[in-house]
Amino acid sequence: MKKLLLELKDASLAAIAQADSVDALENLRVRYLGKKGELTAILKQMGALSERERPVIGQLANELRERLTGAIEARRAALSVKLLEARLRAEKIDVTIPGKPVDIGKKHPLSTVLDEVEEIFADMGFTIAEGPEIEYADYNFTKLNHGEGHPARDRQDTFYFTDDDKILLRTQTSPVQVRVMETQAPPIRVISPGRVYRKDEVDATHSPMFHQIEGLVIDKGITMGDLKGTLNTLLRKLYGERAVTRFRPHHFPFTEPSCEVDVQCFECGGRGCRVCKGEGWIEILGAGMVHPRVLEGCGIDSTAYSGFAFGVGLERLTMRRFDISDLRLIFENDVRFLNQF
Ligand code: DAH
User: Fold this and answer.
1) CA pair distance 204, 277, nearest whole angstrom
2) Do residues 198 and 300 share a domain?
3) If you compute the radius of gyration of the chain from its CA atoms, what whole number of angstroms results?
4) Which of 62, 167, 205, 234 has a 20 to 30 A CA-CA distance from 77?
């Protein structure tokens, strides 16, 4: 039996010393020291020994158990250091390698100008109103005093969703005026930027989708003077204090009187050139005093309140602001173009 124990000792210590993983080591522990292990098996036969041999063999067996336990622990510790070293080697990163540059986008020129316009109006006490792009013809036209046969309603110009021409893609941001007046009591001071849609072929100055910024002010005693002051403030903040403006009579169904506002051509100072097509002026927006019929239709007493409204094309503002000559550049989203702003 002593011989068995000594053989086991040599074999097991050699195996432990060679174990190359924590799993293999655990298998060895079970194989030698487990309940059904080889050392246990030997100990089970101790009953057959004589009184004299038993304590000697017993002591030998205990020593072997301790020796093996110690050897396994030592090997486990050594292995885990090795494991850690291997992992550290495998996961090594070189923090001195320059990082991959992340492409940070830029504000689109339309957003830059819209942000500027919003800030200018916020400074004058305006808030921002929103309205749907899918709109009722009622709001887009009827409540804005467009008669039944008004040419703007034409199917050649307007995207309708339904055969009865009741639902459409809004052709202007002006329906937001109606939505605001129907739900808010005066005084009202809002602007409303957003997309609008018209059946236009794409070219250097047209796109079937573009942006407008609508403005609406309703209060007691609002006059054309307020309209002029407000729009001059906008255009001078955008284009510089020396920007020269011109208010020209015009017609819109929902304002009376109505006007268009031009800015003197920056290129030629009003003499007429290629940029202003020889006009000396560049048309920027439409505006007017809100028609009493529109006010009344929205439940506002037109004998007590008056107001003005305006609609600006955001693309046009942006093209002027950044000297962009072709509208298509704004929508093509070529980063070589966009990176210039
Ligand atoms: N909605 C007009 C257009 O698309 C622009 C406009 C003109 C808006 C006069 C207004 C306004 O609010 O008062 O051409």
Assistant:
1) 14
2) yes
3) 43
4) 62
